[in-house]
Structures are given as structure tokens and as C-alpha cells.
Design a protein that fits this description.
disordered C terminus, single chain, about 85% helix, mainly alpha, 16 helices
Amino acid sequence: MKLMDNQKRLGEEKIPKLLISFSIPAIIGMIVNTLYNIIDRIFIGNIPEVGNLAITGVGITLPIMTIILGFGLLIGVGTSARISIALGQGRKETAEKLLGNAVTLIIIASIIITCLGLIFIDPILKAFGASADTLVYAKDYIRIIFFGTIFSLGSVGLNHSIRSDGNPKVAMLSMLLGAGTNIILDPILIFGFNMGVKGAAIATITSQLISAIWIFYYFTKGKSILKIKLPNLKLERHIVLSIFTIGMSPFAMQIAQSLVQVVANNSLKYYGGDMAIGAMTIISSISLMATMPIVGINQGAQPIIGYNYGAKKYDRVRETLKYGVVVATLIVTLAFLLVEIFPNTIIQVFNNDPSLREMAIRGVRIYLFMLPIVGVQIIASSYFQAIGKAKISMFLSLLRQVLILIPLILLLPKLQLFEGLDGIWFAGAISDFISTIISTTIFFVSVKHLKKKTASHTDDLDVTISKNNKLLYNEISADNSK
């Protein structure tokens, strides 16, 4: 009965109300979940005497954290999108197979990441831009994170499926539970027990453990539609491939982001030293806070788009996209205004060193200058992901992060107009502009095609109704003649 109610809701309830009820919990959850890393950076950046080096050391580990998140999204987003489509088609058994296979994939990926990470920890950190001064902080932090990989993938990888199961509030609560634990433990372990960056890492994996336990309970003993069942843990090739084809887009985006961070770290180290990496760590934190609400909108819209696309209710898909784009643009515009007007106040939260603060203020104003237009780009990539068009989604995801941004980071600092660090800051803004133009063009062409499919589907319904009415008329006429 509950499954039918949720299906009816996704297919019939007014889109604004539906999008609000699904997106608000996701937005809150994503903002709070973002605090996992950002709270760490705030406390680490304020460690007495060594805050500058410590926050730079954590900045060195960001590419690794991004890769771990990428595997969580590969499994989590791919699974949840397929579950939404399967439920839209009325195939609950397939949805449960998807969920079971996701659990097994999470376990396998966690073991591989943990082993490789611990074995090659030193060469990885040095390749990612660690200096002799920052290596010790980076190593202390990421070693503990590697041990907790299974908790991270468990919480990220399965949380998406809770929304597809029809319970966005439960998904939000799992994030709140984890992030709340992290916020409480950070100051206690970092300052109270004088554990420094190690304390931040322990707080992070402990909070992810609690979140993962909550989610696992929901899908086994809780009030979920779908259940994790032992027979479904056995991997099936077509199930795994179906998850990866959709999940590959956000995974590629995270890997690309990691590559950008590695290239940027080394360029920043060359043109501005360790302090420049610390400045970019702060800038990336601000960017993350600005865009995470849009990711929340995408997560809320994904089951609505996936279900209605599967049910061929294309007009509802278009309406969901319209509201998503408008709200996303409003959010990033507000974030842009705050960054441009109050950069000093925002950056001071992370670190109060005058030199670092001055560098970060100039960097954030330039790097995020195109923030108001990136909402459409993020919505576009997620839309193609939700309807199963993985190749287009992957292209749009890689467009900014690899095809445009990396060449600009390498080229612009060498030009007289953008010499040195300014070249790296301008690379972000220019990349945002070019990639958004391309993404928006592809997105609106697809939506226009969707409009044609809506009209075609309506015509088909009219023909069917007309045929049924004609048959009914003939039957009545035959009965009257008798």
C-alpha cells in the first residue's frame, strides 16, 4: 500500500509541492553533510601556531577524499536512479536486487581503496603536492580516513537510495545524525584531547560509522519499502553494469575534480607556496557550501524525474526542471553576493592569518565570479543522469573539470595578462563561463525535444481514447439493434 501511495504521489502530486517535500530535506542534508569536511577545516585552521600548515596539509588530502566520495556516488547515484526508474515501471523485485548489489559493491570498493591507500600513502601525498612541512599533517589525517572508508561509502552510497525509496526525511536525518556527531566530536578531540588533525579524522569516520549503521538498520529492520536481502547480495553482471552506466557520470566528475585538485595544488605550490594551497582549500570550501544546496535540489528532483520519465509523463519532467533551474539560480546568485560583499568575514572563520586571508580574499572573488550562472549547468548534468543518458551527463560533468579547467590552470599563469596566482584564480571563472554556455545549449535542446515527446504522447493518448470511444459506440449500437 505504501509503495502504491508513493508511486501515486510521484506521478500525480503537484510538482512544486513534490519538489519542495523531496528537495528541502535533501538540501538540508547536503549542507549538513558538507560540514563533515568544512567543520574539520575550520577547527584545523584555528589550531594554535600550526593552523596554516595544518589546513594546507588537509588541503593536500582533498583529492583523496574526492576520489572516495566518487566511489560512493558511482554506486549510490547509479543505484538510486535505477531504483526510481524500476519503481516507476512497477518492478519492485528489480529495485531490491539493485539495492543488494550496491551493498556488495560498497564492501568490495572499500577494501580495495583502504589497502591501496595505506600501502602507497607517502608517494600519493607527495604527488598531490605535499611539502616536507605539510606531509606530516596530511599523513596523520588521511591514514585514519582510509581505515574508515567502508563507513564513508556505506553512508554516502546507500543514503541516495532512501530518497528513491520515498523517504527524503529519513535520508536527511541520516546526514544530520552523522554531521551532528562530527560537529560535537571535532572540538573535543582536536582541542580537548589535543589530538590535532588526527582528532578531526577520528571525528569524521566516527560520524560516518553512526550514519552508516542508521541507514543499514532502515533497510533491514526499518519502515522501508525495499529491503536488503541476502540473496540479492550476489552480484549480477547486468545489475552492476546498469548501476555503473548512470553512476559513472558523477564518479567521473569526482575523479576529474580530484585531478583538478592535484594539478591546482602543484601549480599553487609553484606560484604561491604552501600558503596558496591553504587559500585554495578555503576557497573550495566556500564553493562547496554555495553549490551543495543545488546538489540537494538534484537529489530531490531525481526520483521525480526518473519516475515520471519512466512513466512517460514528460510534461511533469519539464515542470520539475523549470522549478529546479529557477531555484538553483537564485541560490548561487545569493551565494555570489555574499562572497563578493563579505569575503573577509567568511574567510576569517577558517583562518585569521593576515597574509593567508588577503590571498584568499582576492582568490575567492575572482575564482567564483561566474557563480550565478553555474546553477543551470549542475541541473543539466543531473537531468541527463536521472533519465539514464549517462554519456551526455558524463560529458557535461567532465567539460568544466577536465576539458576546460585543467588546460586553463596550466596556461593562464604563464600569460602576462594573468601572470602567476591570478592565472589560477581566473581559470575557474573562465571555465565556468565557457562550460555553462555549452551545457545550457545541450540542455535546452534536450528539453525542447522532451516537449515534442510530450505532444506526441498526448496525441497517442487522444488516438487511443478516440478508438476506445468508437468501439464503445459500436457496441452500444449493436446492443440497440438487438
